Amino acid sequence: MAERTVEYLVVAPHPDDAELGMGGTMAGLLAGGRRVGVLDLTSGEPTPFGTPARRRREAAAASRVLGLTWRGNLGLRNRELEATLPARVRLAEAFRTLRPRVVFVPYWRDAHPDHLAATALAVQARFHAKLTRTRMRGEPHYPARLLFYYCTHLRTHADVAFVVDVSDGFGAKVRALECYRSQFYDGRGEQAGAVVEYVRDVNRYWGRMINREFGEPFAVQETLGLATPEAVL
Ligand SMILES: [Zn+2]
User: Fold this and answer.
1) What's CA 218's distance to the chain center, in Å?
2) CA angle 48, 54, 56 (to 5 degrees)
3) Could you list the pLDDT tens digit for every one of the 233 residues in the chain?
4) Which residues surround ligand 1, an ion (CB under 5 A)?
5) Is the C or the N end of the chain the one with fewer CB within 10 Å?
6) How far apart are CA 221 and CA 209, in angstroms?
């Protein structure tokens, strides 16, 4: 894992979850010159049409499309992801070395056990990363904000706290999703690309909610502050 820092870090259970949930937000932050990283927790394999090598290539291609500052994979076990103490330490070490101010994690209600485990793991690792007098790599660090993005296997939009205008970055989001051919296109027949179209519909809906073309929703567990009311659309 490269020793560099990011301002924003998206923790994803599987390669493609970060792009599905908040690819437009990442594109917007990057267009504004921010340092944005994605840490995938697992390879995402096995899947019907993927291989580990192919998934790595797809994730690398999507990262290039978005222009990510950094992307890594923690190498935890797909389909068996659990919020164990050793996994917590590894994610906490990533927080301590990458030192993000804001960490994005999956929304806390989901049908996929890996997603539920990823949320629990990230919440625990955020706290664990600030501990002193440990053998963990890096210096103590507490990400100031934990925000929740929606990459759920439930058709829900409960608890939305705010919506980011992603009208400008939505094209990049779609191009990034199109890199994941093994997940959304190959072997799908007439359903090829249906997931991407679903994401387009949902993001268009949220865009309408804020009088913009496309939007991505987020949830919070802590009170959210605004530097200025000017930031409200
Ligand atoms: Zn996933």
Assistant:
1) 11
2) 120
3) 445 899 999 999 999 999 999 999 999 999 999 999 999 999 999 999 999 999 999 999 999 999 999 999 999 999 999 999 999 999 999 999 999 999 999 999 999 999 999 999 999 999 999 999 999 999 999 999 999 999 999 988 899 999 999 999 999 999 999 999 999 999 999 999 999 999 999 999 999 999 999 999 999 999 999 999 999 99
4) 13-14, 17
5) C
6) 22
Cβ atoms 18, 10 nearer than 8 A? yes
DSSP string, 70-108: EEEEEEEPTT-----HHHHHHHHHHHHHH--SEEEEE-S
Distance 14 CA to ligand 1 centre (A): 5
In the chain, the amino acid numbered 149 is Y
Task: Give backbone dihedrals phi and psi of 99, rounded to 5 degrees, phi first.
Answer: 55, 50
List, in sequence order, every beta strand (DSSP E) within 24-78.
Answer: 36-42, 70-76
pTM over 0.90: yes
- Among the listed residues 33, 11, 27, 57, the one whose alpha carbon sits nearest the alpha carbon of residue 166: 27
The rounded Å distance from CA 188 to ligand 1 centre is 18
77/31 Cα distance (integer angstroms): 33
